Amino acid sequence: MMMARKQDVRIPTYNISVVGLSGTEKEKGQCGIGKSCLCNRFVRPSADEFHLDHTSVLSTSDFGGRVVNNDHFLYWGEVSRSLEDCVECKMHIVEQTEFIDDQTFQPHRSTALQPYIKRAAATKLASAEKLMYFCTDQLGLEQDFEQKQMPDGKLLVDGFLLGIDVSRGMNRNFDDQLKFVSNLYNQLAKTKKPIVVVLTKCDEGVERYIRDAHTFALSKKNLQVVETSARSNVNVDLAFSTLVQLIDKSRGKTKIIPYFEALKQQSQQIATAKDKYEWLVSRIVKNHNENWLSVSRKMQASPEYQDYVYLEGTQKAKKLFLQHIHRLKHEHIERRRKLYLAALPLAFEALIPNLDEVDHLSCIKAKKLLETKPEFLKWFVVLEETPWDATSHIDNMENERIPFDLMDTVPAEQLYETHLEKLRNERKRAEMRRAFKENLETSPFITPGKPWEEARSFIMNEDFYQWLEESVYMDIYGKHQKQIIDRAKEEFQELLLEYSELFYELELDAKPSKEKMGVIQDVLGEEQRFKALQKLQAERDALILKHIHFVYHPTKETCPSCPACVDAKIEHLISSRFIRPSDRNQKNSLSDPNIDRINLVILGKDGLARELANEIRALCTNDDKYVIDGKMYELSLRPIEGNVRLPVNSFQTPTFQPHGCLCLYNSKESLSYVVESIEKSRESTLGRRDNHLVHLPLTLILVNKRGDTSGETLHSLIQQGQQIASKLQCVFLDPASAGIGYGRNINEKQISQVLKGLLDSKRNLNLVSSTASIKDLADVDLRIVMCLMCGDPFSADDILSPVLQSQTCKSSHCGSSNSVLLELPIGLHKKRIELSVLSYHSSFSIRKSRLVHGYIVFYSAKRKASLAMLRAFLCEVQDIIPIQLVALTDGAIDVLDNDLSREQLTEGEEIAQEIDGRFTSIPCSQPQHKLELFHPFFKDVVEKKNIIEATHMYDNVAEACSTTEEVFNSPRAGSPLCNSNLQDSEEDVEPPSYHLFREDATLPSLSKDHSKFSMELEGNDGLSFIMSNFESKLNNKVPPPVKPKPPVHFDITKDLSYLDQGHREGQRKSVSSSPWMPQDGFDPSDYAEPMDAVVKPRNEEENIYSVPHDSTQGKIITIRNINKAQSNGSGNGSDSEMDTSSLERGRKVSAVSKPVLYRTRCTRLGRFASYRTSFSVGSDDELGPIRKKEEDQASQGYKGDNAVIPYETDEDPRRRNILRSLRRNTKKPKPKPRPSITKATWESNYFGVPLTTVVTPEKPIPIFIERCIEYIEATGLSTEGIYRVSGNKSEMESLQRQFDQDHNLDLAEKDFTVNTVAGAMKSFFSELPDPLVPYSMQIDLVEAHKINDKEQKLHALKEVLKKFPKENHEVFKYVISHLNKVSHNNKVNLMTSENLSICFWPTLMRPDFSSMDALTATRSYQTIIELFIQQCPFFFYNRPISEPPGAAPGSPSAMAPTVPFLTSTPATGQPSPPQSPPPTPQSPMQPLLSSQLQAEHTL
To answer: In degrees to the nearest 10, what's the CA dihedral of 427, 431, 437, 443?
Structure first.
């Protein structure tokens, strides 16, 4: 087998000898020339293996050791290098030196006794077992170092490196060294071996020495020089590689690099390695507590670490590491310092927040003060060792407290000074905020709703701008506006309550007409509290509408005092005094008082109840709340499918009080289950006091079986369900009409209707809508209502305490939460009194709907609204009902000191006297009054009890008979609430909704066949029975018990024939009855209410009804209706007139007159009664046919300008004008609208043009300004707020347009208002292209105004004034003179020079408000104009500077020295005021205008 043979490539090996000056100290100096360092750097270039100290003075033992081996040369070892042509070679390095004995300081004896020059030139070296040399420490300790022998114990030298030390060696002469080198070179040259001169220690080289060395080399042939530095590792390899290339002739010539260039390259390499190493350290070392040992181990394998250690050594690497650690520590300390310094201001704010405590303390004293604070250790820590940054505290990261010695540093002192400055600035800002608030509170210009832009110039000054940011004073202004707006709204609400009579007289409903709203605005318009909301008209109108809603629909929620409504307070007081069992059951169930609760039982077997309950819950919110008509109700469902006698299936539980029940069935079995369950449930509650389950509202619902929607089964189930519903007296919903219950297809609308019905049934249990049962009424002798005003400054607890603490006080059994029962001895017998305590707004709805025997009305003597509500309430109370007025005062001292309390007490007494009522006053400071206080009133009630009850019964009979549309009832039964079914507008055409659930059966209607139901009229008891039936069926009202008598028949066909006749006369006919005329023999104890609302023929006289008045006395009251009455247009049955006559039965009959309302008996009631008859139910456009017919007749009966409308004769002219305007014929042609004069349709040649175009040298004053000022000075100097109150914009434009067309316009003839003329004059200056005060002059004026000395300031302003353009100066002089004259009438017109300047400076100067400088200078502008007005004689008439007069500016003493210069220019004279002030002439128009003004003032 043949194999290819490779040529044996051997690595060339070169033996190099390093020679140079050697010998004793005398010959070479104190140090060598660096041969050893050169060899060391080349053989072992790593910085850690490089040693600078290589001594040649050795002991005999060291010299004889194996390293030196008794030779004067050292073997440095073998080195492998790659040359420039990438060829690797080996080099053995030998250093020729001369070792000195440390004893004799002479060269050691060796085997070769030749001198150094000859030894160094030897080319054959031999030394057996000679070891490689590392460093001086190796000598004597050879076993501790690597032992490598010189190969074969001998070497053949191939070339020489001749070293020359170019540094400034100690005790060595360079010239001597050069001579030695020259001799050595000559000896070396004999060997014919290559020689390279190496300049050592060039890093310390002397320039001359280097130059001389180069000169020496040049003197020799082909002798190359390499500049090196073993310490800096520069050109060391270059020296050896140069020699190798000289030895090996085949190699190219090496490029010699100068020392400094090579040093630069080496430095760059070291810098790059250093940067990489520092990056490595910063990446690895993050904590200043790291140590070098652990970190160096981590970096051992990193090339960045290896490269840097190779170049610079481990010590330098460690030094850089320590520097990094120091830097980390410093940064850590600085971070901690910043944290401490950041926390220091917080510590100052917490420990020394009071400026008065530290205002004058230095930092040292403040430091002592801090130590005394209780929370000192919370913020600071006192260290045993200081400073803090030199202790271990810097590493205590958990302790964030501030080292107390930090206070001794400069930054801490600066922070303390900053804290002081901050406290001072905060105090100043607080003062500015306080001053700003005071300025807002005291300024008359800050009104509710005024925008900040309008208020800024009146309240801001330079200090506010300097110390307060815009957001601060905007926030203060916003809060102040909210306060004054809220206060104004509260006061306006109180004003509305003070005019309660007006609102109730207007009979307002949900949609008040424009005319009624206009009357409200007209009546309230002059009130200051109405004007206070002038800039908030929308909110004011909203308050009025809200109050109208309260009047129309009075509830606890709509009450202005909600949630402090009297009704809520009374309910709480009575419920806390009497806790009913049902209340205990519901106590836990009603968790949220703001959400009404509906408890619904769902009854149905075979899963029907659960299925419907789930479907209803799906319609609820997440928290089981149901929304009905926009209100949230809490819905609680109880599905029942088992035996209801078991507690688990009971309708009622301790926590569940049902309000209604849904009964579901889909088969005969399930229907039977429903019937049985209801019967069982009712039987279980019989005999109980709270047996409300008997009357629980029920709804029977047929639920189809799935897949069975038709057939005879469905029809039969519907019939059976209807029969059962009729039997149970409940609502029946079948699939055709209800649309619910088909599996899961439930109709949300029907469910809502069912729940609405439950709510209505639930509301029927409260006081207003509920009525006691017959048994309860039979047990009650008297029913008294106590009325309180919501929001009065007294406690309802103090008023009710005597009642509730009475031993005879018991809980009311009628289900009311606002009433109690009292048993009091009145006269000879005890009487049971049901006392209902209500607010006035709740009492309005029961004045005619409930039987009330007397009213106790409370009012606060120091609140107008309280007495006003009392008056409004009494207006509609019949005069037969006793009234007890109770005034609540703060005590006798308050009555004497308070005029309002005295007036209201007096008025209350007068009202009581006029209505024959009783009056008393109770001081609120008195702990409690006693019930005996009302005993006289109770006696009056007992005396009038029978007539009150009879009257109440007759009212109900009349109401029951009024079943057809032709009956025109009273628009309201004592309150607008009762008027809810009457349409106030054409849109209210929907009939009133009827509830799904009704406890009472349907009212029996009269039979069409009257002959089948007949009785004799003489039988009074039969009619009593009928009326009792009416009482029990209508409005839940029950008459007092009457002893039954045998029935007597009467012919109802005859007596009630008017019903058919009234029906035939038409559906739309309305009849109003007239008041009765009093007759002789009037008996005040016998009263009855006429059935005036029933329509009957005018030409018949028939008996309406007769009832027993007193069963013990046998009296009979007979009411007769005659045709003599004439309608008064009021539509109120209480105002009708009727005559009475006795029955032709031979019995004595008491002739009585119809009771009237208290408004007709008391002059202090019905203050706004005229408004009641001025409107129909709706607006004028909604008048009914009867009203319109009456108006047509009135218009025909009263013709001509002098005709007087009868019901207007007693009214004031202002009210008559309003009514006349409201009755204006709608067909009257409207005047054509006057076109608006705007700049878009009217281009003027006079207004808005430069001033120079409207003046001439002969007429320096614009004629328009002249005419305006003449008119104002003749008629308007006494006008309040002249120039401040704006004129009508359209009139101002009309004035300007007319003047633009005719410059001879006479303002007096045109009848323009003073404010219109003043506004037009200001508009003239506003429309000038440039302001009257030129912009260029404004800067000078502001600068002059900054002068502190007053006299100098005025003279400076006067000098600036002289620079004005002539046209501007003359007009400005004329206007300022006029304003000065206006200011002297400030007693009348309230316009001082300051006020005038505020109104005029924006017009005259027109600054640019887009810059902050202009905003801050607004005060200066205003003050400048004010100075011109005040010092007008000085500026324009060369008078001396006038001091502010001691008297008022409008007084004669103040005006005396200044008035003569003010001239009112006649129309025919020079308009400019003269330079020398003559006496003021009178304007030709002044007498005429003054007389006109006086005449108008008189009117």
So the answer is: -170
